[in-house]
Amino acid sequence: MAQPVEISLSVNGVRQGGAVEPRLLLSDFLRHELGLTGTHVGCEHGVCGACTVLMDGEAVRSCLVFAVQADGAEVVTVEGLDSGGELHPLQEAFRDAHGLQCGFCTPGILMSMIPFLRDNPRPDEPQIREALSGNLCRCTGYQNIVESVRLAAERMGGGPSPGGA
Amino acid sequence: MIVDGEHTFPGPRQTVWDLLQDPEVLAKAMPGARKLTLTGDGTYAGVIRIGVGPVTAAEWTLNVALRDRVPPESYTMQVDSKGALGFTRGNATVNLDEVEGGTRMRYHADLSVGGKVAGVGQRLLDQVAKMLTKQGLDALNKELESRLRDGGGPGDQAR
Amino acid sequence: MSRTYVGTSPVRNEDRRLLTGQALFVDDVQLPGMLHAAFVRSDHAHALIRGIDASAALAREGVVAVITAEDLGDYWQPGPLLVPPPPIDGIVFNQASQVPLAKDRVRHVGEPVVMVIAESRYLAEDALTDVFVDYEPLDPVVDLEAALAEDAPVIHPQLGTNLAAHVVQRHGDYEAAKTDAHLVINRRFHYDRGAAAAMENRCVAARWDPRAEELTIWDTTQAPIPIRNGLARMLGLLESRVRVVAPFVGGGFGPKIMMFYPEEVLVPWAALRLGRPVKWTEDRQENFFATTQERSQIHDAEIAFSADGKILGIRDFFFHDTGAYDPYGLTIPINSQCTLLGPYDVPAYHSEFRAVFTNRTTVTPVRGAGRQHGVFVMERLLDIAARELGLDPSEIRRRNYLRKDEFPHTFQILFQDFAPLYYDSGNYAPALEAALDIVGRDTFRAEQARARAEGRFIGLGVVSYVEGTGIGPYEGARVTIEPSGQVRVATGLGTQGQGHYTAFAQIVAEVLDVDVDRVHVVTGDTREFGWGTGTFASRGAVVAGSACHEAAVAVRKKVIETGARVLGVPADEVELEDGAVRVRGDHARSMGLGQLAGHANPLRGAVVPGTEPGLEATAYFGPDHGSTASGVHAMVVEVDAETAMVKILRYIVVHDCGKLINPVIVAGQVQGGVAHGIGNAFYEQLVYDEGGQLQNASFMDYLLPTALDVPSVEMAHRETTAPLNPLGLKGVGEAGCIPTGAAFAQAVEDALPHLALEIREIPLSPNRLFELLRDAGPADRAPAAELGGPTAAAAAD
Predict the structure, then answer these.
(1) Does C280 touch chain B (CB under 8 A)?
(2) pLDDT band at C682 (very low <50, low <70, confident <90, very high)
(3) What is the pLDDT of residues C449-482, one digit of tens each?
(4) 3-state SS class at B19
(5) Do the Cβ atoms of B118 and C689 come within 8 Å?
(6) Per residue in C508-527, is it b (16+ CB within 10 Å) or e — as a string?
(7) C288/B contact by beta carbon, under 8 A
């Protein structure tokens, strides 16, 4: 077994670190080492997108990233989205437009949409659907997810989004 | 999974036949083979290491039995290979004909592949089989050429 | 101001937790000293086990236990029969339910053979590669018809046959009805397998607490109470010492029902035996092999018509693939059998099926649960007949709908609840007309012709279905007003995204006239509520929702009685308004519900005999029959005649699930179902080779629809209320995916009227459709008729 590697990274603005096996996935590090279980694991082969987090401002699939690769990075998970109990406008839009049912895929979708809306503050429906196409949802048929993202874009008015580096 | 094709070796049929029965040669020709030993009359056992696409390289135990041998014309090969990621088993028939320029080998393998490797490697299996076959044949060619060089004589005729 | 919540759509109570990553899913359970399980699974579809060598695994550092079937001793028992076969005359049913670990024989790829328990999941999975299982491969059974041949290998030797069941049900006399037929159509239809593919894989965690003598099991189950009852029995524990928690569950769709999966049975056993918490989390690949699946059937169906296009009778023989085991009995094929009849007046029906064991993953209900097969067969038969009779597909349906004055309607065949198939209420024709109005009754054919002139092939499919929902036996709920004035509702169901935390809160909040976000619903925890069945058959809202209503009504009665006592007036002078009781006409004399709850639980004095402390009530609800939901789906597609790619341009649903509790949640259920149905129709197929090996066991090869593949659904609701429950509810959870395949087939054919294309199989894929298009000869039929108008009877609604 390979020797553990010391890593140090920022997660939701908090300095975290420790010795990890080189093969430890970032998703497992976040969930099991740090207890940030809001990041979900749906396929472990990079297709479903449920495990998406922000790494240095960009959406990455944490099941395809080793924890050691996140050494020195700024990571934001769904737990870092609201501020002091106040929902992020994207979260609020998902609640208001019934953009989630079982909610398992939702954290990954939120974390995918943060950089998308930062880069595309006024997206149209085809752009939203394209941006969502890397996240699988079995419950909603996507219709209300598309609407939630549209609503969020409207409410956010192109303003800055947290976690966006 | 069917793997079939033909290949012409630049050498006489008896030399090719001998080559194909030699465990040391087969061990070299078998991509990823760690070892291959003769365990009985026409039976071999060994370990190979192969990965298929997203399925990481893993060790597979391999048992091969050569049957119905009609030297130097034909034989059948029973293959039974298994590992943590699944299994491959089946039969292959090999025919050797004398043709202009050497010996033509025709092979036809009917293999069943099971377990993880079948479930997630499916799209790649045909390609992998082709690739492994090509690697094997290239290795056999090389070995044949070296034998012919060392032994001299018959190889010159074939060229 | 009294609150109205039923029929409105407040934001969901559960969403904050889900959106902030605070909702607990089973894999989030992390306990000190927790061990992790992994399973060695069969690579073979059918083989004998000659031996198992686990010594290397046991020697690996970090491995705590390696368990084989032999190690289980008496705990090794086949799983329970979850649903017994219905009492149908002449029924044959051969039971063979799954075993915890394969002992001498494996029957499908992915069947667990050895359980490895280690200090981490990584180590447990490492150790899997150390276990050597010596198999003697047997010929696999994959083809449904070949499985019943004399010389077929037998999967369960003790049965001596691969026949799992043979059932004949009759309504009227088909042979007699057929003698007068003007037209008889006979076709074979195929329906193949798909995965439920909930985004959350299965997961089980268990902890034995020796001090409390309590076993707690967190389980991704749709039915925590049956799981608790079954595990308590198997483990020899009191039911009250076993707590099963199904916290937030990431999608169910059927396979998370009370399955007693091997892992579900073994993880609690291991936790007890080892004295340490144990968790197992399925990975996606295991999910493809080991989580139950559905849908393979082959139907040979015949339908007889009169000259004016009225159905005289139907005869259907079908094969149903039950996979390696049949723990769920006959729910799926019985659903297929019953749902085939649809919203139509069918005077004679002969339906006969054979359920067949195969060396493929076990089949149990997946969203729709056999209903879509019946709908596909029926709707396809109607389409083929319409073509023969020169009728528009909508017209042949109009001529055969049950009329609204024909309810309740009974067929002489048994439904999955063992009662005769019973339609409590319905009004079908107006739903069709509403759908056609949304499509554009007067404009669609012209648009289609214009597109055709531009070389674009556009087609319309319009199909109908009914869905038996909300079956018994019962569910219960307890409603409690706490001294804070907040209300707690506990019910025994599991929840997998259906919005129960909100829908049940709405029902209770309306009865007690409190804000909906002050009603806290708990589901899926047997310690909170220990009686009930589970979430399946589109029954949660209907049955548990009704129980919540009844419990809330009982609490309201206590509120009034207690209020009368405390306020010192007769009960009929007390009113409940805005979270308080008050004296009618003297609103200054009032008391908030929280304070009243304190009075109902006095510290001094006595509770009057015959009364109970607290403002709390428990109620149960069990309907006599399931309530029959219905709907019409219309689909407009564009087919690329060269590549066979199909684009869905519009999808229209007119749905009738009786009274709507929360229209936005209902719409969401339908939209999700439609997406699932579109996947089943065109993207998703579990492909097995002739050796019983699944060929596409990943999301790279098994394609779930994405946001680019699923259209927005245009929806209209109709509310034909059910007379069977106090709120008039019918179920909706499965509806969206039931008729989708049938709509898809009709729409594709309609787009290509120049081809003699007859789609008799589902799922299609671009590849398969390409073959069908390539092989289809030119059509010999008239151009599509106008969509036409409603009959006088329907127009009157």
Answers:
(1) no
(2) very high
(3) 999 999 999 999 999 999 999 998 999 999 999 9
(4) helix
(5) yes
(6) bbbbbbbbbebbbbbbbbbb
(7) yes
Mutate to test the interface with C, among B56, B79, B80, B112 (most CBs of C within 10 A): B112
Q: Is the Cβ pair C698, B54 closer than 8 Å?
A: yes
What is the distance between the alpha carbons of residues C161 and C336, in angstroms, rounded to a whole number?
Answer: 23
Number of domains composing chain B: 1
The fraction of chain C above a pLDDT of 70, given in percent, is 98
Under an 8 A CB cutoff, do C284 and A106 touch? Answer: no
Taking only the tens place, the pLDDT of each residue in C10-54 is: 999 999 999 999 999 999 999 999 999 999 999 999 999 999 999
Q: CB–CB of B116 and C697 under 8 A?
A: yes
Which of A20, A100, A139 is the best residue to mutate to test the C interface, defined by the most C CB atoms within 10 Å of its own CB? A139
Q: ipTM of this predicted complex?
A: 0.96
Overall fold of domain A89-156: DNA polymerase; domain 1 (1.10.150)
Q: Which chains touch A (3 or more CB pairs under 8 A)?
A: C
* Residue A58 bridge partners (DSSP): A55
Q: Give C608's pLDDT tier (boundaries 50, 70, 90).
A: confident
Query: Domain A5-80 - what CATH class?
Result: alpha beta
In order of C450, C454, C640, C654, the CA distances from C444 in angstroms are 10, 15, 19, 18
Domains of chain C: 15-21+472-621 (3.30.365.10), 35-162 (3.90.1170.50), 197-290 (3.30.365.10), 297-471+624-795 (3.30.365.10)
Please name which of C653, C655, C656 lies closest in space to residue C634, comparing C-alpha atoms. C653
Specify the amino acid at residue B144: L
Measured between beta carbons, the chain A residues lying within 8 angstroms of C16 are 87, 95
Chain C residues with beta carbon closer than 8 angstroms to that of B118: 109, 689, 693-695
Can you give the CATH number for the domain in which B79 is found? 3.30.530.20
Distance CA C416, CA C167 (A): 13
Q: Is A67 on the interface with C (CB under 8 A)?
A: no
Is C130 or B158 the better-scoring residue by pLDDT?
Answer: C130
Phi first, then psi, for residue C577 (nearest 5°) are: -145, 135
Work out the minimum CA distance from B74 to partner chain C, whole angstroms. Answer: 27
Domain residue spans in chain A?
A: 5-80, 89-156
Is residue A41 less than 8 Å (CB to CB) from chain C? yes
3-state SS assignment for residue B94: strand
Radius of gyration of chain A (CA): 16
Interface of A with C in 74-113 (CB under 8 A): 77-79, 81-82, 87, 91, 94-96, 98, 100-107, 110
State the Cα–Cα distance between residues C45 and C324, nearest whole angstrom: 9
**Alpha-carbon distance C267 to C72, whole Å?**
12
Q: Which residues on B lie below 8 Å from C689 (Cβ)?
A: 112, 118
Flag whether residue A37 sits within 8 Å of chain C, measured between CB atoms: yes
HSE-up of residue C564 (Cα within 13 Å, Cβ side): 11
Question: Would the CA dihedral through C789, C791, C795, C797 be positive or negative?
Answer: negative
Give the residue on B whose Cα is nearest the Cα of C42: B115
Distance between CA atoms of C454 and C446, rounded to whole angstroms? 13
